Input
Amino acid sequence: MTSEALEGYFGTVLPHLNEKQRRVVVGAMVVALGRGGQARVVEASGLSSSTVNKATQEVRVGVEVSDRQRAVGGGDRPAIDKQPGLLAALDELVHPDTRGTPMSLLRWTLKSTYQLAGDLQQRGFRVSAELVRRLLHQMGYSLQAPSKQNEGSAHPDRDGQFRYINDLASFMVGDGEPVISVDTKKKELIGNYANGGTEWHPKGDPTRVEVHDFADPGLGEFAKAIPYGIYDTANNEGWVSVGDSADTAEFAVQSIRTWWLEMGQTRFPDATRLMITADAGGSNGYRIRAWKKHLADLATETGLEITVCHYPPGTSKWNKIEHRMFSFISMNWRGRPLTDIRTIVELIAATTTDKGLTVRAAYDPNWYPKGVKIPDAEFKALPLSRHEWHGDWNYTLTPNPAN
Output
């Protein structure tokens, strides 16, 4: 092989190989060329004489097949070995028990790898942001967002109320009576606004939305969609009424009424009772007189005895509708602007899960006034009986034959 051919060969092959593979190739070439081969390979490959000599010796004794490119102990020493105290200093900056102390330099700063590297450099360590990132992973840290789990102080009867709800719901389901979980989903801006999440699009062609999330002044008080949901816990199916006026007790009960007419009475043709689990606050809160008044009207219309059990204050996330229906609706419309009521309704109705969840939805065009007061006399006349256990949270409304 001529010197020009040898140089061209190495120029083509070596750039695509790792360190160990290059040694195998040049060592094998020296052996193949025979006498004077090492000098020719050094000149053609551009590698040092010591490297080519080492490669030749490795080939002659037989190269061990492994994933290692260097012998054990080869390469630079780890930064934490060369700089004692580096790991402890980094852990001090990011550990939850120390990062919030008044003496921590990062108490009021962004805890990024660049910020951490800068702080360590001020302490005399030679580090980069990339080295900090690798060390954090080695120490078991990862990027995490705050998790919404703390809902305030726990009520002393919280666990007792959970057991009460569970026992009563199990009894009702066993008797073939409907048990539903209800709540208002987060209000959503109607328009071409950004919606959290991502979805597949052709590269470089995302959905264009408004820069600012300012409500459309042309829509006035109807600029937000208000989804009120009903989840049938026994049959894993739900209903969502989407309104655009106000989240009131009347709207909440009208949504339950619509669920009964559209789904409930077909699913439970022999039902005599209905159990509702709801949050402690909002339009269906246990202190809301209008909620109980409109439920009493619904009981009379349907002939159902309606029992309501509220989750204790500060435990809204335990409501089954939150994690069995609303969470999947949010996942189904992630990354899509909710441009109008029709889009919202269709996205809700298209929500399904591998476990068989089905959801139906419809727009409620009715207007629901705010601030409607229920007089004392009218409220006291309601056919409402409080349970012995926490009658403020648990009560039953019976059909009123006088109506």
User: Anything to note?
Assistant: The mean pLDDT is 81.
